[in-house]
Design a protein that fits this description.
- By secondary structure, this protein is mainly beta.
- 12% of the residues lie in helices and 39% in strands.
- A 6-stranded antiparallel beta sheet has the order 1-2-3-4-5-6.
- A hairpin with a 3-residue loop joins strand 3 and strand 4.
- The two termini are 20 Å apart.
C-alpha cells in the first residue's frame, strides 16, 4: 500500500529562526509527533554526509530508519534521503520560505 502525504503550515516567525529550529534533528520529536527517538550516527552537526537515525511509530508500527543529509544550504534548504524499506527513495526537506515536505 502506497501512501503519499503532503502538508503545509505558515509560521509567523523569521525564516532564520524557523529554519535553524526545524533543521536540527534533535528537535524532530517536538514537532513531528510520530518520531519518538533521534540518534546521531555521525558527529552531531548537520552537514552534507551527516547520518541521523530515527525511531517512529506510524499506523501502529515501529519504524527505525537512518537519513543522510545530501544537500544543505543553511537557512534555505535541507534535503535528506534514506534507503530504508517502505521509505525507499523518499526525500524530506525544508525549502525556501520554510516549506516542509
Amino acid at each position: 500500500m502506497n501512501v503519499d502525504v503532503s502538508t503545509s503550515i505558515v509560521i509567523n516567525r523569521a525564516r532564520e529562526l524557523v529554519s535553524r529550529y526545524a533543521a536540527n534533528p534533535d528537535h524532530a520529536p517536538e514537532w513531528y509527533v510520530n518520531i519518538k527517538a533521534v540518534e546521531w550516527k555521525t558527529a552531531p552537526r548537520v552537514a552534507i554526509g551527516s547520518r541521523i537515525a530515527f525511531v517512529a511509530h506510524f499506523l501502529g508500527r515501529r519504524m527505525a530508519y537512518t537519513y543522510e543529509v545530501v544537500d544543505l544550504v543553511p537557512g534555505e534548504r535541507l534535503l535528506m534521503r534514506t534507503d530504508a524499506p517502505r521509505i525507499v527513495g523518499r526525500r524530506h526537506g525544508i525549502h525556501g520560505p520554510v516549506m516542509v515536505t
